[in-house]
Amino acid sequence: MKEMIGRLQKMDSDEKKQQLLARAKAWPRVVAGRPKEEIKEVRRQAGEMLVEFNRRYSDEDGGGLIRTS
């Protein structure tokens, strides 16, 4: 997530990139002590954001794909 945020901040901005960046910055980094279902949801959201970045923007800055696993 940290890599994706850094790369998005360096790219020329548009509305879709700004929305993805805002979602990534708002994503909770610490989930310890939360219910299992909530942890699964947080992980799912992170995966969706990384997939979106990889599909739309990974070639734009020449950095390639961000590994999701």
Can you describe what's shown?
- The protein is 61% helix and 0% strand.
- With 69 residues, the chain is mainly α.
- It has one domain (2-56).
- The longest helix is centred in the middle third of the chain and has 21 residues, at 36-56.
- The radius of gyration is 13 Å and the shape is elongated.
- The N and C termini lie close together (12 Å).
- The model has no long low-confidence stretch (mean pLDDT 94).
Q: Which descriptors would you attach to this protein?
A:
single chain; 69 residues; mainly alpha
Concise synopsis of the structure shown:
Helices cover 61% and strands 0% of the residues. By secondary structure, the chain is mostly helical.
Q: Could you name the ranges where pLDDT drops below 50 across 5 or more consecutive residues? A: none
Strands, count: 0
Strand content: under 5%
Helix/strand structural class: mainly alpha
Averaging pLDDT over every residue, what do you get? 94
**Mind summarizing the main beta sheet?**
none
The ordered H/E elements are: HHH
What is the topology?
Layout: H1 2-10, H2 15-26, H3 36-56
Helix pairs in contact: 1-2
